[in-house]
Amino acid sequence: MSKPNEIHALPRPVEALPDYAASSSRSTLASRLTEATGLSEEAARCIGNTVVDPSSVRKTIGEPKTPNFERIAVPGGTLLGIRTTVWARRVMPDPRNPRILPSRRHPFAIDPGTGGEDSKFRPVPEPRSPEGVSATTAELTVDIESRHHLNWASQQAAGYVSFNNDWSESIKHHGVMEAVWLVATTYRHDDGSDPVTVLTTAEGSSRMTAVHSILGERSSDVPYDEAGPKFRARIKRLNDAFASGPSSEDVIALRCERVPALIIVGFEPFAQSTTTFPTALRSFVALRHVDPPSPWGDGPENEALADEVLDELARRSLISATEAAYFAGSCTKAEAKAAHLSDDPAVRAAAIVGLLTNQDGRFRDAIRVAVTSQSTRKRINQRLLNDLATALVLRAVAGDPGKVDQARRYLRHAFGKSVHSGNWAPTGRSTEQLVQDAMAEVRASIAAGTVDETGPASMELAVRAAYPLIIDGRLNADRGTSGNDQPDRRTPGEVLDAMRQSPQGIYQLGQALKDHAAGVAIRAVDEDGSTRSMEDGIGEMSINDIFLRGEFPPPGKSKARRPGDTPTDRYENAVGVLGDAMHAVQAAFEALGRVVGDDGRPLVETKGVDQRACGAWREILSSVEDELVLWSRIHKRANGAAAVARQDEAAADKPDDDADPTSDWDHEEEAA
User: N or C: fewer beta carbons within 10 Å in the chain?
Assistant: First the structure.
């Protein structure tokens, strides 16, 4: 079962399979290949028996004297190839997959058969050109001890790639979409068995291993199985199932029975070149795996995916072309304002997050199609959606690339599960109105005793405030262990959740938006929303990551110790001492339960604890519990919805000229 926030790629449709080609068609193709390339009869016959449509390939090749092959430049010459489709059950993954080379156990280190399963046989040797043919002929030979040796090597390779590079889930839904590279390879047996020739992967072993696993095919049996009546019967059964209504297993098999392929059939070395076909083939594979193009990396990849998502949403008329340009950051602030879109980057950021976390099936389907059009293995989950949102949000930031990259690493962690719940939507309300609505929600949740469940306004406020807090460097993500002074390892999203669940946090989120918009350092606020002064009383305190984590701890934790000596400071510090003591009691209780005796059982279960001590402790806990219930009720009265009514009454009776000049929010709420 998929997770709630994961969307999967739309499966590729299936169709009936073509019949296995007649022997005359396969033989004609083999003859054409031998004449055009100089391949041995065994290698050409192997290709003819593996290709799905031999007549089409024969027409593509054309005249043997002037064959039409794909020309592939490699160091030392040019490889010649044929693009076609092959039967998956007639292709063998490389039993000496280069991915497993570092883990091979060599005879010099351990005699074959004297160690574990990984050293049961010698490693399969390097392929080389067959004896008696030109070193430029496009076929290979491999010497093995026996069929058992080949089976062992195939199992070792399959086990490694299945664990480290498993394509099964993608291939079940899409089949193999990129061509595997194949070369006719002959396996010669030291035990006297007849040699066998099969198309073996030079590149694409992981995909073919996954296909064989899905089809229930043992890869090492492929060279020894004849494609006769049994193979035709399997195709007929699948086609009958397709006509009558295939099962899910039949649908997967129909996708996997055929794979696209590039069959290497020739090599033309440069004049004076001494490069042989095995070397040229290794160079071709190395260009993809040893010296490939530089990967895009997460940043460019997410940028490209985000653009595709916007294009798909616009194509489906879920957003307008103007909105697509706005979210893409390709219009100026003046142009955005003229289009009645906010020129505030924080409001734009919240709109982007709301767009990508929209639970409407139309939006989710558009995002899925956009992303899976570029990557079938990428899971469209909360993390990816956050990455895409971050890529778009940061297009509003111009500055030092290093700081932007740091903001990218932090912002992607600012939108937690609650943001993806679908219980909110961006509204574009003014900061003052949003703070006022969020405060009403928090007061109501405190009064109802549901402080963990606030509402859409507080959620929107937290999402919007994430932008200034992280862009200004006021809230960070975990920086790892080296030189890290963060004992609190919560993500920015978890800190923002804690902030939006308290009145002080609502004020602080609003202050972050207000100060960032004004271009000043974000100031700290007290419980009543007034800006906090420095310890020496000179100037106002600015916030940072340590302050926010200390002032808005997770549930059950106390605030950071205050250095001042006001009644509020002493009160908060005393609450902190009590919280630490509660955690210490819990830790001591659990530690006692872990003390075991000689028989391995906890001693407390056999000896117990002195009943007089237990009685005294229970009395303490009982009295503390009674007080905690009372204090909780007082907190509801002091901070819940009723508190708002009392504050409104007091404000109505209070002359305007007596308003507290230290509270910016008092003036703004009155104006609102």
Answer: N
Q: Is the pLDDT of residue 415 over 90?
A: yes
User: Could you state, in order of their start, the residue ranges of all structural domains in the chain?
Assistant: 24-268, 309-551, 556-608
Lowest mean pLDDT among 11-20, 468-477, 644-653: 644-653
For residues 350 and 430, is the Cβ–Cβ distance under 8 A? no
What DSSP line would sit under 310-330, residue for residue? HHHHHHTTSS-HHHHHHHTT-
Q: Are 157 and 94 in contact (CB under 8 A)?
A: yes
Neighbours of 453 (CB within 10 A): 12
pLDDT at 266 over 80: yes
Task: Tell whether the torsion through CA atoms of 217, 223, 228 and 229 is positive or negative.
Answer: negative
- The amino acid occupying position 202 is A
Q: What DSSP string describes 436-498? A: HHHHHHHHHHHHHT-TT---HHHHHHHHHHHHHHHHTTSS-----STT---S----HHHHHHH
When mean pLDDT is compared across 74-83, 100-109, 537-546, the lowest value belongs to 100-109
Q: Determine contact, residues 85/91, Cβ cutoff 8 Å.
A: no
Q: ∠ CA(264), CA(269), CA(273), 5° rounding?
A: 145
Q: Is the pLDDT score of 454 beyond 70?
A: yes
Residue 429 tokens read as: 């309300």
Q: What is the pLDDT of residue 669?
A: 41
User: What's the distance, CA 624 to chain centroid?
Assistant: 47
Measure the CA–CA gap between 454 and 639, rounded to whole angstroms.
14
Tens-place pLDDT, residues 455-509: 899 999 999 999 999 999 999 987 555 555 557 889 999 999 999 999 999 999 9
Between β-strands 91-92 and 139-144, what pairing exists: parallel, antiparallel or unpaired?
A: unpaired
Report the C-alpha gap between 275 and 444 in whole angstroms: 79
Instruction: Judge whether 323 and 317 are in contact, CB under 8 Å.
Output: no
The three-class DSSP label of residue 79 is strand
Q: Spell out where 478-594 has E strands.
A: none
Of how many residues is the chain composed? 672
Q: Which residues contact 580 (CB under 8 A, 6 or more apart)?
A: 558
pTM for this one? 0.68
Q: Give the three-state DSSP class for 610.
A: coil
Closest residue by Cα to residue 474 from 432, 524, 530, 510 = 524
Q: Classify residue 543 as exposed, middle or buried by CB count within 10 Å of its CB (0-12, 13-18, 19+).
A: buried
